[in-house]
Amino acid sequence: MTKWFSAPQSIMLARITSLAQATFSAAIAFHLAMNPAFAGDPFRDNNPRAIGDKTEAAFRAVFQKGNYPEAENYLKQALASEPNEPLAYAMRASLAYTNNDVATLATYSTKTLEAGQKLIATDPLRGNLYTAVGTFLEGAVIITREGAGGAAQALGKLRQVYQYLDKAEAISANDPELNLIKGYMDLLLAVNLPFTNPDEAIQRLEKNAAPQYLVDRGIAIAYRDLKNYSQALDYANRAVKATADNPEVYYLKAQILHEQGRQQNSRQLLQDAIANFDIALSKKSQLPADLVKQIQSERSRANDTLKSLG
User: Fold this and answer.
1) 241: Cβ contacts below 8 Å, ≥ 6 apart
2) What InterPro entries is this protein classified in (predicted)?
3) Between vectors from CA 201 to CA 41 and to CA 174, what angle results, nearest 5°?
4) Which of 92, 95, 295, 309 stands 20 to 30 A from 181 (CA)?
5) Neighbours of 183 (CB within 10 A)
């Protein structure tokens, strides 16, 4: 069990709502490798799992192309034709959270948990992993619906999450899918809690997680939140190079450039930030409406910052 469970509930409550979206818009937003060795499993070159072609296509639509409507279509097909794959349910729940659809989030959180529990009998590694994911999603439902009143129950769910992750890790500590999810969770918690160190989580991602461009994107987010903008930009550039069609990676790069430009009072960096916001917005029809509004708002702030330099 990780040390941050000793955190005061007031701190954990302040973070868990944002962690719910951050983790499951990222940690279960599994990207396909650019040239996967085995169809259906973007994580493993050895001992691949039959995750399913439609689920794989949904990954590709969201996380290579950044195309949410296309992903929704593939997920409908996946849920019909690949009913035992918990990752499909987890992705559906994550998209519901992104769309502020709490009822659908609740439905597919439960389905993720049930599919994960069922999978334990035949694949205990992934079964425990997705039982953890489903449990986390149920915690997100609680905190979304009840706010502060659900803090204690949500924290109880979070403890259960790490119990299941520990079981999965005991089976295969170096599994790339496990390390991707657990690495993202640990990293997002570490950068949001002042007494924790993100180095271990970064090492977990770099050493054992896959695919690489999701690793790079996660570490870029971590360094952005730690205000280490030079390192963040380096990893963001790697993610852009690997997933050049995805507007969200340009949005991430724009955020980093904006903060770096503000820090250095650099017109060039701010202009570069605005250019990357514009690339992201050029594909706004592919993105959730709330995300488009957020990108537009941040672009406006970057423009204001540029104007303030005269």
Assistant:
1) none
2) Sll0314-like (IPR048173), TPR-like_helical_dom_sf (IPR011990), Ycf3 (IPR050498)
3) 40
4) 295
5) 27
Q: What is the pLDDT of residue 188?
A: 74
Q: Which amino acid is residue 282, in one-letter code?
A: S
The domains of the chain are located at 1-200, 211-310
Per-residue pLDDT of 163-176, as tens digits, reads: 999 999 999 999 99
Q: If one looks up domain 211-310 in CATH, what number appears?
A: 1.25.40.10
pLDDT given at position 13: 45
Query: The pTM is what?
Result: 0.85
How crowded is the C-beta side of 239, counted as CA atoms within 13 Å?
29
Distance from C-alpha of 233 to C-alpha of 266, rounded to nearest angstrom:
15
DSSP bridge partners of 38: 41
- Of 260, 256, 248, 241, nearest to 295 by C-alpha is 248
Would you place residue 98 in the very low, low, confident or very high pLDDT band (cuts 50, 70, 90)?
A: confident
Q: Is a pLDDT exceeding 50 seen at residue 145?
A: yes
The pLDDT > 90 percentage for the chain reads 62
Name the burial class of residue 30, with classes exposed (0-12), middle (13-18) and buried (19+) by CB atoms within 10 angstroms of its CB. Answer: buried
**201 C-beta neighbours (distance < 10 Å), count:** 25
